[in-house]
Amino acid sequence: GPGEPQPGQPVVPRPGPDEPALLVDREALKTALQLPALSGAAFDELAPEAFRHPAYVAVRRAVADAGGAAAGAALPPEQWVQRVLDAASNDAVRSVITELSVERMKVERAPDARYVDEQLGFLNERVVQAQVAEVRSRLQRIDPADDEYQRVFGELVSLEQRRRQLRERAAGGA
Asked: What is the C-alpha separation between 89 and 61, in angstroms, rounded?
């Protein structure tokens, strides 16, 4: 029936709402579902791999398949969440979406643009950090006399720069 997992769609374990390693992932998804006008395009630029839990990756994909958070900004809240639910791959993912669409944000003040920026900034920084590590290890395997070395080094410098900008943004600098 409709409750059965689709072939090729493993039923994902549910992440706990208070898992420290996943708090930013969870908050970022809540912003996309609850505040699409604020997270919009910035959220839509996040790669699914930015999320550390398969259930959250699946929710991220459902948001994308529903047209992205930017599209959600133009819809009434219930209609937007319904579109994401319709785009979800199975009931397990739908139940996580339902939970995230009503759960309070972990912020004392009313969640504003700055809060959304901070969450997305943290996630982006994490992605860039992984890329930095990957490029660094590639660099160690290249002979510095090789032309390839300069190219990869340039890549590393620009990633480091991007990471610094994201860190400043996440710290509420911009």
From this structure: 9
Rounded alpha-carbon distances, angstroms, from residue 55 to 35, 45, 82, 84, 107: 20, 19, 18, 14, 23
| Structure-token pair, residue 64 | 């994308």
CA-to-CA dists, residue 120 to 20, 25, 65, 72, 91, angstroms: 16, 9, 19, 17, 26
Question: In this structure, are residues 83 and 96 in contact, taking their beta carbons and an 8 Å threshold?
Answer: no
Compute the distance between CA of residue 167 and CA of residue 73 in angstroms, rounded to an integer. 26
pTM: 0.82
Euclidean distance between CA atoms 71 and 7, whole angstroms: 29
pLDDT digits (tens, 9 = 90+) for 86-106: 999 999 999 999 999 999 999
Taking alpha carbons only, the member of 89, 108, 3 closest to residue 48 is 89
Q: Quick one: tokens of 142? A: 């290249």
Dihedral (CA of 162, 168, 170, 172) sign: negative
Query: Whose structure tokens read 């710290």?
Result: 171
Other Cβ atoms less than 10 A from the Cβ of 67: the count is 17
pLDDT digit string, tens, across residues 3-17: 444 555 556 678 888
